[in-house]
Structures are given as structure tokens and as C-alpha cells.
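Exercise 7.
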Amino acid sequence: MNFSIQKATGQKIPCIARIPENAEHIVISIHGIGANKQDTNAVNLLQRLPEAGIGVVVYDQPGHGDAASDTLSLRNCLDSLSAVEHWVRETYPAAQLGYVGSSFGAYVLGMYVGRGLNSGKKAFMRCAAVIFPEIILGDPHAELDPQAVALLDRQGYLETIVEGNVIRLPRDFLYEIRENSMVELYSAHEPEGTEFAFVHGGADQVVPVEAVRGFAAKHGYPFTVIPGEGHSINSLPGSEEKVAEMAIEFFKS
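Solution. The predicted structure, written as C-alpha cells, is:
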């Protein structure tokens, strides 16, 4: 089912849902930077989880896919996730709600849970960019490079490359994530009542596996490494299926 949810701002969130009849579990999937609701990982979830009786809703984050007109910002990303969650709760009130966050989407999900905005109790984190501000900006507490600031102020964005794709990150978004560290948020106040599970590619060149392993270990979250896999965990035979099976077991347990 393809549909749109309208936010309070008037912006629409393009969604795809595949929800089996009488589904007891429904998962909201949040994609990464430069991806969209129809990327490989989202399509895999839309196929595999409903086969196991779990409903799935995928959607375009602000600044991505068919939501390109909605400005990319952390606040807008959190608002979109909240609106999708509200739709699930209103439409399927008896279902148990969970989340799958991929890369930057896991950072958004982590900030969402860390701020206590969630009603779902399970979060599956795939190649989670828990250090997203550090990946993009380096040390967020360091003084900004004057040349980078001048360029940012002049053109209104900076470009970065994610898995070979050139991504434009708006000026205000960069300043916003500089003030929103998931690592610091969880160190100050670890969220209660939400169960996490982390899976990561052992050869991930985008989000360093050891940084995420350390974060998971500090907070006691289960952490699984898929050896030889990169950031998308789909380059080796059987990897996508293994991640799907892990997610199914996690949400049904």
C-alpha cells in the first residue's frame, strides 16, 4: 500500500506499508542519508518481515526521495517519525510497535528514543551511525574551520560522499547535529524501557564498527558483527537473509 501522511507543517510523508491481516507486530523502518523508502534494505524488509507475520512501514525522510521538498533537519526527521508512529497507533492500536534504524536512520531513531518520544519498545539498529555528528564534522566540540564556515555560509551547504554518492547537507542541519550527540545524550541519561539490538558489517567503511561496538558495550546492548560485510550488509550471499532473520527473532521474542 502506497500512501502519504500529512505533517502539522503541511509537508507530506510518502510511505509504503505491507501489513498482514491481524499482524501482532508492526515495524517502522527509518533509512539512511542518501537512501529512500525503496532502497535495497527497505525492499528486503518489506518482503521478509511480512512473510513472518510482521507488518512494515517504510517512508521517505525529509530531503530524500519523494519528500525532497521537506528540508533535511534533525527536527524534521523526528517530526516525520512521530507522524508515522501516530498513524500506526491510530490505524493498528492493538499491534506491538517496533523500529528498524539504518545508518543515519539509526541516529535519528536513537535521538527519538533518547528524548522519550517513542511508544514502541524495540529498536533494531543496522550499521547504526551513533557517532553521526563526528562522522560528518569531526570533533563537534572543536573550533570550526574558518574556511569551511566561509564556504558553508556562502553556498548554504556542504557536500559529502556516502558509499560513492554525493550528498548535500544543509547549513542549518550541520549546526543542528553539532549540538545533538547521541553518545552524549545516552551518557547523560540512558533511556529506559526500550530494548535495543545492534548488527554491523565487519568491514563497514562508513560507520566504524569499533565505535559502535564500544557504544553498545557501554550500555549493555547486544551487538552482532557480520564478517566481511560493508555498510549495506548485502554484498555477500546470505547476509541480507541473516539480518532479516535476526530482526524477525528480535521483534517476535
